[in-house]
Write a structure and sequence with these properties.
The complex is a heterodimer of chains A (174) and B (161). Chain A has 5 helices and 7 strands, in the order H-E-E-E-H-E-H-E-H-E-E-H. Chain A is of the alpha/beta class and 174 residues long. Chain A starts with a helix and ends with a helix. Chain B has 161 residues and is an all-alpha fold. Chain B is built from 6 helices and no strands. In chain B, helix 2 packs across helix 3. Chain B is elongated, with a radius of gyration of 31 Å. Chain B starts with a helix and ends with a helix. The chains are: A alpha/beta (174), B mainly alpha (161).
């Protein structure tokens, strides 16, 4: 009996490691931005192209930046949650319309509802690169001094909003 | 059956070729006509990971982001930026993960050293096992009866061949 003990122990350890491996999300690359100032930009506001928006304008308040696009299927899944978020939360939600045609983006917002205080058009995707965006949708929580506190890659879930985003926002606001 | 498979393969190719052509048109990188620059772009692109399709470099990938990043590399190189500066630009945005060859630091220590540690451990265990076995054998005593039996077995084996 004892001779089976060691292989069995090794098997158990292996099983634990494989189990941990299954829980990992290799698509979610740790962002180098956490705790760093949000990169600056100045982009035209979607639908009001003569005006522009810069993160500087949000200094002094906690806000959420959501990267989306009308061509992005996962954004459609996430969208109702954002509409809900905008209805129930007072935190400003800014959209970054990533590599999109402004007309298509506006039509999309008309069809599914516009939860954003405003969206900016990043037609060339340069701001996307500056924010390290690689899987739209992505969501950033930025604090009062303009520092990125959280990055969520992929569509938001009810769980992520309720357990991560909202608690973080309220702790940043207090 | 053979003809069918040839036909099917042919069909596959006839779809594949215009298909890929279309994709290329869509995302065609603006290749500059400077071969020295292009060589440098390719060299750097081979060191950067495509984050959308994580097991490819941006040189291999045709994903939108990979094309954008290649263009970024090309533009920065043509502006005279060094390789180090461009790699820094990429890691500032996408983290160390963007480097196809992970850097040697605290979080990747086990990645680099782990295999050698495992090999060392294996060697130590092997040597110990061999030594122990040798010692056990040297302490073993055999009666005349055992030796005679062994000889008989060996002789029989030889006789069979």
């Amino acid at each position: 009996m004892r001779r089976y003990l060691l292989p069995f122990a090794i098997f158990l350890v292996l099983l634990i490691f494989l189990g941990i491996g299954l829980q990992l999300k290799p698509r979610e690359v740790p962002s180098p931005f956490i705790g760093k100032p949000a990169p600056m930009f100045n982009l035209p506001v979607l639908g009001k192209e003569q005006t522009s928006f810069s993160p500087d304008q949000m200094k002094g308040q906690v806000w959420v930046l959501n990267v989306w696009a009308s061509w992005c299927a996962a954004c459609r899944d996430e969208h109702p949650l954002l509409v809900d978020f905008a209805k129930t939360q007072s935190t400003p939600l800014i959209g970054l319309d990533y590599k999109d045609k402004p007309e298509a983006a506006q039509a999309w917002l008309k069809q599914f509802g516009d939860p954003y205080q405003l969206s900016v058009s990043d037609i060339k995707g340069q701001v996307g690169i500056d924010y390290g965006v690689y899987g739209v949708p992505e969501t950033f929580v930025i604090d009062r001094s303009g520092v990125i506190r959280l990055k969520h890659i992929g569509p938001l879930t009810k769980d992520a909003i309720e357990k991560k985003i909202i608690p973080l926002i309220s702790s940043l606001q207090s | 059956m053979k003809y069918l498979s040839i036909l099917l393969t042919g069909l596959l190719f006839s779809f594949a070729i215009p298909g890929s052509g279309f994709a290329q048109n869509n995302t065609a990188p603006t290749v500059s006509d400077n071969p020295v620059l292009e060589k440098k772009v390719l060299e750097l692109a081979n060191e950067l990971r495509c984050l959308v399709c994580q097991n490819q470099t941006i040189a291999e990938s045709n994903a939108d982001l990979a094309v954008d990043l290649k263009n970024q590399v090309r533009q920065q190189l043509s502006e005279g930026r060094s390789k180090q500066e461009i790699l820094k630009y990429m890691t500032e945005r996408y983290g160390d993960f963007v480097l196809y060859k992970p850097p040697f630091n605290a979080s990747t220590l086990m990645l680099w050293v782990g295999p050698f540690l495992l090999m060392l451990l294996g060697l130590i265990l092997l040597v110990r096992q061999i030594k122990q076995r040798k010692q056990e054998l040297s302490q073993e005593t055999f009666s005349a009866e055992d030796i005679e039996r062994a000889r008989q077995l060996l002789d029989r084996k030889l006789g069979n061949q």
